[in-house]
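*** Backbone structure tokens ***
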Amino acid sequence: MNIGNFKVGDYAVKDIGGKRALIFDCKHCIYSASVADDHHCMFHTIKMLGNVEANQIVFSEVYERVYGEEQTKMLMEIANLIQKLSVENIWSYNHLGKAEQKCEPFFPDRHRIIVNIANDLITFDPLMAYLTLTNELKKQQELIKNGDANYVECSEKYLATLISLKNSFDQTLLITKSKKLLNSLEDVPNTKSIYKAIFEAQIKPSFIGSKISFEGMDNFEFIDEYTVNESNVQILSDPNKVEKIYFVNPPEYSLAPDLYFVLSKTREIVATYKPGKTSLSTVANSRKYFERMYESTIKEVAQYNKINLSPADIVSLSKVVARYTVGYGILEVLLNDRKVTDIYIDSPIGSKPIYLVHSEYGQCQTNVTFTESEANALVSKLRAMSSRPFDEAHPVLDYDIPELETRVAAIGPPLSPGGAAFAFRLHKLTPWTLEQFIDNKYVNALAAGMISFFIDMQSTTLIAGSRGSGKTSLLTAALLEIPQNSRIIIQEDTLELPVDYMKNIGFNMQRLKTKSAISVSKTETEVAPEEALRTALRLGDSALILGEVRSTEAKVLYEAMRVGAAGNVVMGTIHADSAYAVWDRVVNDLGVPTTSFKATDLVIVARPIRFKGSLTRHRRVVEITEIKKHWNNDPSVEGGLLDLMKYDAAKDNLELVEDNLKESELLKKIQVISGLTINDIWAEIRMRASAKLYLVEKKRELKLKKLLESENTSQASNKLLTLKEEMLQEDGKINYEELLNKFKTFVTDELIPSVEEE
């Protein structure tokens, strides 16, 4: 049995995430693979634990029964107690009574009783050994109480032995837990019923490496429940932990034994096929093909073994087989939950459960523990799909998994001394919209209107924030405000923006993929960000979007800004927590001259807010700041930063700083280039804000969540712009109140009915 690093007969000990698992091969065992149901299994397990130390016990057959650390500790303590009693030779004559001839007639029965308890029963049925011991102790105490002096004199040592033996039993966790159950029962039950209450094994298919724990669910508070690809997901709260619990229960963990058998046999048959690099890169397109192929194999296995399966069973099993052959195993369930934004698997693999960040419930601990073998398989798959090395010379692998709309960053030794570790960022399949952000209070309507207006006026904008603040999501929403008659060039080192989706809803976009900023392995086929940006400037009249301003490309970006970037929108994101920090980062860290930095028109800052010190984080836009042009060295000292809107945490609102508006150079510039008066500008901003707020109000009123998705908000934006253009052509000016009313009529009469019909 080549299953671990220690092999003797039918068991092995394997190191999993720093824990030692005692694994029994039970495929050909004549006894039941359960310590609760079969005393022979109990005996064999305790005997093995007398030879090796382990943190968990696994019985492997068609499926696996896994006993956790606490359960394993109970049996380990019994194994240690057996060895202790053997060393002490507790059944020897000096433990049975006074060494005098008159006492010797009592010794044979006492010897038999002690041997039965401390050598025989304890290995098969420790609870029965304890119950037998307590009965014998009560009996002897009664005999001594009512017996003659000769019996009392001959029984003192024996009584002391029984008391000492009981104390040893009482110190074990098994007896401690059993006492609580025994005390609640009037009659002494069959010990198997006690074992079943204590030794409830986790059941899982034998070919699945990940451990999924269902312990403690009864003690947790239920919060939410939904389904992801036939897998049940529950969000629970543990009163003793600050993070929520993410419980996933895939269908393969609750199958009938016949279905487990068919699943395992099918997996064995198809496992001989190993997808090559080309196949791996097209798994998303060929997944249905594999599932259909597995369906035919499942039918054959079931028919050969005379197992009746329904068509639904066959389809469900084929999806499970695909998940564990050409897919990503149990991890795939988490990666398909689009309410999840990030997944973390830290080293050493297997030592801690997988953690994730949920869009509604924040950081959560899952009930899934990844294994080293699964990590190795994942690394091999990523190597093949990316055509990049991942070893000690190249300990970082950054890759986009297109079929799952996910970016993975993998690190290994020597960068990660504890072994491989993974961080997954799940991209939103549809773009965030400003309307959705109004709905969840990330921005208010006025801020959304202002952002929309400044983008339409081709302002250069940097969106700043920490990781997890939503800056990339806000950039996506801002992209939707660019009129669809504009061409957009997007440059990213990791493919986070939903370009393909935006193309499908009418945007004209070209994506450029550059070298990863974190990869230590740079292949010749990857283009450096600064070179890609210079190329972008030669690709014609286009809005220019940088997924993130990180390094040397910043200088090229600001060169583009200074020459006007062909007079179009320029936007990007950057890690910083204020407008001043953006200047500091761009000038002092990235080496852009201050005179070039002043080509920035706006900085929008987002930040996670913990209201009144709460553990819950709420993402908010906290400032919209104009970068003025007439200062020389330090914008903070020389008044170069003009706050247009500032967040007030006490009111949970992004508020307009009206006193600053008269100093705005950007508003004056827009007046010059557009011919709009200051009143026109504010009428336009408020009209856009009202239009977006109207969509949000209708979504809430009609409970029509899809109304705020980008395909519909883009249609609404297009209509607003065309209505505005018609009004200009007919009247030469804009009546904003009338324009807004026409827009609302379109929404109620045309847009909402079409969304409801869908």
